[in-house]
Amino acid sequence: MTRLLGLLAVAVPLVSAFSNTAPLLVWSSESSDAIDALPSTALQASTVLDSLLSSEQVCDYDAVVLVQQRGLHASDLRNLSPESSDLPQLLAHSPSSRTFQYLVNDDASALLSNRAQDLAKECESKLLRYSPGDSGVVLDHGRKTVVSLGLPDLKESGAARRVAMRNQERALAEELDALASVFPNHLVIYSGVPLSALSARASPHVFINDDLPEGGILKRYQILTPGLISIFLVIFFILIPVLMVGIKALAGIQNPIKMDMPKNFNAQEKKNQ
């Protein structure tokens, strides 16, 4: 039993690492008890965000920057060079920072874009939504601000993906540097979101599979599902044998033995005697 539990303990992180997971980075310009108290064993992005954004300290920042990127993987961050990339250096030099490589982030409540408006209302802050490099964005130095930054989706693969990640990381670092100059006391949350999770939830259309194989119903659909097979096994190997034993037992029940009367027995004569 102990060995089985050990295998399960190893299997759970492995499954989490590949099924609807994305990284989440948190850092601040000043030491933060809220960041340091984040649960290190969290599996859900919503757990981390609930713990962080519900703290009283979150409204003390001049700016809370929420960065969300669809398709971001933990491997994209690991491929960034610590020497030439700005993001690893920001994390290394921040007074408080936490990195979660594999968090399940397919719940609508975990999306930073959904939480930005609630946070701005709670902290009575100005809400800004834009992408790095957008023109016409006005940063108000004297007012608390919640900034929701949207980065382009990461859909590339191989070398093209690494190039796209470097370019986007550079643009994000420049934008964060501009924000830090206006809001010295700030908190940054950078979260990835699986492409599959958002696409499935955002699409209002019904999916129709046009690639069904040709042929009859047995070729188009799986009739014998595992559940149905289990039912058949229970019926044939448990219920039917029990039923046969019961029928055989009932058939073996015999009537009471009858007493045969003598051949010349006369009931009237017996009474008269």
From TrEMBL:
GO cellular component, one term: endoplasmic reticulum membrane
Chain segments annotated as transmembrane: 228-251
Listed GO biological process terms: (1->6)-beta-D-glucan biosynthetic process; cell wall organization; fungal-type cell wall biogenesis
Bilayer topology annotation: Single-pass type I membrane protein
Signal peptide: 1-17
Keyword Transmembrane: yes
Keywords per UniProt: Cell wall biogenesis/degradation, Endoplasmic reticulum, Membrane, Signal, Transmembrane, Transmembrane helix
Compartments (UniProt record): Endoplasmic reticulum membrane
InterPro entries the UniProt entry points to: Big1
Family statement: Belongs to the BIG1 family.
Protein name: Protein BIG1
Organism listed in the record: Ephemerocybe angulata
